[in-house]
Amino acid sequence: QVKLVESGGGLVQAGGSLRLSCAASGLTFRWYSMVWFRQAPGKEREFVASIGWSGANTYYADSVKGRFTISRDNAKNTVYLQMNSLKPEDTAVYYCAAINAPWRATTWSSNDVTYWGTGTLVTVSS
């Protein structure tokens, strides 16, 4: 049974930082491109960042470029999202996703996702 479990969400003031983690089990982690999505209240789920199997390739949404950093540790079956300079508009439920496809430098769609995590809430106060 595949599980993706996010952690690290919470309440932070604007300008602050959070580090999200996503621990994967039940799959061969290094075979998957890993992606973070987010969904703000009343909005559609949107792509945030992706990383290839080796960790060498990453891609970001324009809205988070320069503030967020995605990384992975294949030995721990874990992907991370370091979020700095947080803004109120970053408030959302953040979802980890595994995609059984070669990484590409593009915005992934929810339709591309093989497995979803359950999400972790990030709230940024102004």
Radius of gyration: 13 Å
Q: How many beta-strand segments?
A: 11
Beta strand %: over 45%
**Oligomeric form:** single chain
Tell me the number of helical segments per DSSP (H or I, 4 or more residues long).
0
**Helix proportion of residues, in percent?**
under 10%
Which term fits the overall shape?
globular
How confident overall, as mean pLDDT? 97
Give your account of this protein's structure.
- 0% of the residues lie in helices and 48% in strands.
- The protein contains no helices and 11 strands.
- The model has no long low-confidence stretch (mean pLDDT 97).
- By secondary structure, the chain is mainly β.
Note the main attributes of this structure.
126 residues; mainly beta; seven-stranded mixed beta sheet; four-stranded antiparallel beta sheet; 11 strands
Q: What is the compact description of this entry?
A:
The protein has 126 residues and is mainly beta. It is 0% helix and 48% strand.
SSE map:
Layout: E1 3-7, E2 10-13, E3 18-25, E4 33-39, E5 46-51, E6 58-60, E7 68-73, E8 78-83, E9 92-99, E10 115-116, E11 120-125
Parallel strand pairs: 2-11
Antiparallel strand pairs: 1-3, 3-8, 4-5, 4-9, 5-6, 7-8, 9-10, 9-11
